[in-house]
Design brief:
The protein is an alpha+beta fold. It has 23 helices and 24 strands. Helix 6 packs parallel to helix 19. It is elongated, with a radius of gyration of 34 Å.
Length: 802
């Protein structure tokens, strides 16, 4: 029994450590799939004087930077784009990047089919070409080897396929970054198109370009940063209005991708190591308990001249067998943990899908097994030698109290378990707090249907507006539908259209308060469907869609940021600069703010306009339907009504708004669940360890307990004696564990939301729970012994309890 428990405990501990190592190895340590990836850097604008932090750059600033930079071997730009991939049977939303010529070449990875586009194809007026990802090629075109040269339609425009990139190729890698107060996630691409810079807005304040560069051999990031800052200072001086306070920040690509996860993943590796420590001490205790049955044999061998090396070899063979079996089991445990981890798509952790048990993890498993076999084989030998040959031959052990080394194991196990449990509990509290943040709207019962409007049939704004009008009319007849609306950009969709605004008769106090807001084109019923409260003025009316004087609605975040203490209803705003040709919009109402950029972020300023007044050519329409019926029940009816308008159009995605909100807290819950699993394992193993220590201690004191019983000691007296001695170790563990948890939580301030990074309630509850369970385990171990007859205790000795 002891052997089985010891092997299982060790297998679980090693398996958890290997699972943590496989995650950290895949995300942090595995080389990026680019040649000389350490030379790839991202270049951001960083304007601390304007208070905006990192931002993309503009076309003009990019060109000036590229012309003046000498530390780069190559420099390219890209922007993220969304298109509708049109086909004879359906349209599919696809995500990709428009890039400058040569950007894909920076990876030094050749396409598996065809070629990438040239500088001549990156000019306005040149033929439209596209390079496909391996995933899109397989998913949509069945891996057709003759795809090169064929024509596909992206949002109605024909593009010639000139190449297919190999499996696993990503540029850029998936990563998240906070830009201008918003969490932006750059996703895996389905395709790459020429950017054609000459056709982009030629303004310094139109900042939309992401910049990727490859440093020259021998040039460092620090050298490049110094050069970038020098160029920025010159631009800030030459263009004082648009580039006031400008600086550039050069960040290694690997650092940028891993910036938001590095600390937590190292913490995960530390926690995995702590779990392994508990498991190793468990195995050592149980192996020692198993060896107590052979103390007589060990003493005889020692008396007959057996050397310490021979005794260690005998014990080491048993330890090696334990660890070999545990290592094999650990690989099964690690595989069982890492498979769901790699498949957890809501985590938004870069490279998480690459987690696997590779050769590196296998070597680590063998190394851990060998190291633990050597370590835990020493304890039984040391204990047998210290017990003395004469007493060992009688089958009994030295009748002392709780030896210092045994007390140390109790302290280590409980203290480590307290640290792990309090860390996991803090992350759970943070994730739960974030999940209960009010997003600013009511998501219950709201389903979102994403429709990609093919340009072949919806090229004009009039056609798109007519489609939305008919769509809303059709939704009125859907059984179970309570309300329906349309919006171009859905909250929590990851998309955004943030633009500059001018407020009539308003002068910004500084550059930071210059009006800039997200623009949303909505139907009049949008606020009713999402139950967004009205704060001032009114909501849109049917007349606003045909009014010659366009109307707008702003959220209260817009007022707090730009016009605090002022009345905005009745005033006019317009897109762009005061001298722009965009029409003035009269603000008719103020609504509550939605945390559409992230639950953990403050709401961003937003401006809403009727969808018929939108000048955007955005091909996406989101239909949101509020219904008490289940999603499965209402979806067929909604799709049927869509087909009545356009038989070839079907939703590309159907989302429950509650799921979209939940996804916004996906990464915190990922860490909370993973750390929670480790905390549960650590707690269980520590309790097994405390029980084994108590049982071993009681076995070593069998003669003492028998004598005390003969002299009149009652079972409760013996229980109190052992609990008092164990209580000293438990109290010491609480003190050390509390101190360790406090020190660790102090470093987690950047990763928790809505709670103090040092949460004494969490630490106290973790310590009390584990202490209570530990003392309970000791009580169970000693209670059985205290009720046995003294004659049985003296006759059987340790063998009765091992």
């Amino acid at each position: 029994m002891l052997t089985a428990v010891g092997i299982i405990s060790l297998a679980i501990g090693i398996g958890c450590a290997l699972a943590c190592a496989s995650v950290v190895n895949a995300v942090l340590f595995r080389a990026f799939p680019y040649r000389d990836s350490n030379r790839l850097v991202l270049v951001w604008e960083n304007n601390a004087k304007r208070g905006v932090g990192l931002t993309p750059t503009s076309v003009l600033n990019y060109r000036d930077f590229k012309e003046g930079a000498t530390t780069f071997e190559d420099l390219g730009a890209f922007v993220d784009v969304v298109f509708s991939l049109d086909g004879p049977d359906r349209s599919e939303r696809v995500f990709g990047y428009e890039t400058t010529a040569g950007l894909l070449e920076q990876t030094r990875i050749a396409p598996m089919l065809g070629r990438i586009f040239t500088a001549a194809e990156d000019k306005p007026g040149s033929p439209d070409v596209v390079v496909l990802s391996h995933g899109l090629w397989q998913r949509r075109f069945g891996g057709d080897p003759a795809i090169v040269g064929q024509t596909i339609r992206l949002t109605g425009a024909s593009h010639t396929v000139i190449g297919v990139m190999p499996r696993g190729f990503m540029l850029p890698p998936v990563f998240g970054v906070r830009l201008v107060g918003m969490d932006i996630v750059l996703k895996e691409a389905d395709f790459w198109l020429p950017l054609k810079l000459d056709g982009q807005p030629q303004r310094r304040d139109a900042r939309s370009l992401f910049v990727l560069g490859r440093l020259k051999p021998g040039r460092s990031v620090n050298q490049s940063q110094a050069e970038a800052s020098s160029i920025a200072a010159r631009l800030a001086s030459d263009y004082a209005v648009d580039d006031f306070g400008l600086d550039f920040t050069v960040v290694p690509l690997e650092t940028q991708v891993l910036a938001n996860v590095r600390t937590l993943l190292f913490l995960l590796l530390l926690v995995g190591a702590l779990v392994l420590i508990i498991a190793a001490t468990d195995a050592a205790h149980l192996l020692l308990a198993d060896s107590l049955t052979m103390t007589g044999e060990t003493a005889v061998r020692s008396a007959l001249g057996a050397t310490t090396w021979r005794l260690m070899s005998q014990q080491g063979t048993l330890s090696a067998l334990w660890c070999a079996l545990a290592t094999a089991g650990a690989l099964v445990v690690a595989a069982a943990i890492q498979s769901p981890v790699a498949a957890y798509t809501k985590a938004n952790v870069p490279r998480l899908s690459e987690v696997k048990l590779d050769g590196t993890v296998g070597v680590l498993a063998v190394a851990l097994g060998v190291a633990l076999a050597l370590a835990i084989s020493l304890l039984p030998i040391a204990y047998a030698r210290k017990s003395g040959s004469t007493r060992s031959m009688t089958g009994t052990a030295v009748p002392v109290g709780m030896p210092r080394w045994r007390r140390l194991f109790v302290i280590v196990q409980l203290a480590v378990a307290i640290i792990v449990m309090s860390t996991a509990a803090l992350l759970f509290r943070s994730a739960d707090t974030l999940a209960h943040v009010n997003p600013g709207f009511v998501a219950d019962g709201v389903r979102a249907f994403e429709l990609m409007l093919p340009e072949s049939r919806y090229a004009s704004a009039a056609r798109r507006n007519e489609f939305q009008r008919r769509l809303l009319e059709q939704m009125a007849g859907v059984p179970g539908s309570q309300a329906a609306a349309t919006v171009d950009i859905l909250p929590f969709s990851g998309d955004s259209a943030v633009i500059n605004f001018t407020i009539e008769n308003h002068v910004a106090a500084n550059a930071q308060t210059k009006p800039r807001a997200a623009l949303r084109a909505v139907s009049a019923s949008y606020f009713d469907v999402l139950s967004i409260p009205a704060i001032d003025g009114r909501r849109f009316l049917a007349s606003d869609e045909g009014d010659a004087s366009p109307s707008a609605i702003v959220n209260d975040a817009f007022i707090r940021r730009f016009t605090p203490g002022e009345t905005i209803v009745g005033r006019r705003i317009k897109r762009g600069a005061p001298n722009s040709q965009n029409p003035w919009l009269t603000v008719v109402g103020v609504v509550g703010s939605v945390r559409g950029a992230g639950l953990g972020l403050e709401p961003q300023p937003e401006v809403f306009v009727p969808y018929v007044k939108s000048s955007s050519a955005w091909p996406v329409v989101h239909l949101i339907v509020k219904s008490a019926a289940p999603a499965r029940a209402i979806a067929p009816a909604v799709i049927d009504r869509i087909h009545r308008i356009d038989a070839e159009l079907s939703p590309s995605t159907i989302d429950d708004m509650t799921e979209l909100v939940a996804t916004a807290s996906g990464q915190p819950f990922f860490y909370a669940r993973l750390f929670g699993l480790l905390a549960g394992v650590a707690s269980l193993l520590s309790l097994v360890g405390v029980y084994s220590v108590a049982a071993l201690g009681v076995s070593a004191r069998s003669n003492e307990i028998a004598i005390r019983s003969c002299l009149g000691a009652q079972p409760n007296d013996i229980v109190r004696l052992v609990l008092r001695e164990t209580g000293i170790a438990v109290c010491s563990a609480v003190v050390i564990g509390t101190l360790g948890a406090w020190m660790l939580q102090r470093r987690m301030a950047a990763f928790v939301y809505g709670v103090e990074s040092t949460d004494w309630t969490v630490i106290a509850v973790s310590a009390l729970l584990l202490s209570a369970f530990a003392l309970g385990a000791v009580y169970i171990a000693v209670r059985r012994v205290s009720e046995m007859r003294p004659l049985d205790l003296m006759k059987n000795g340790a063998g009765a309890f091992a």
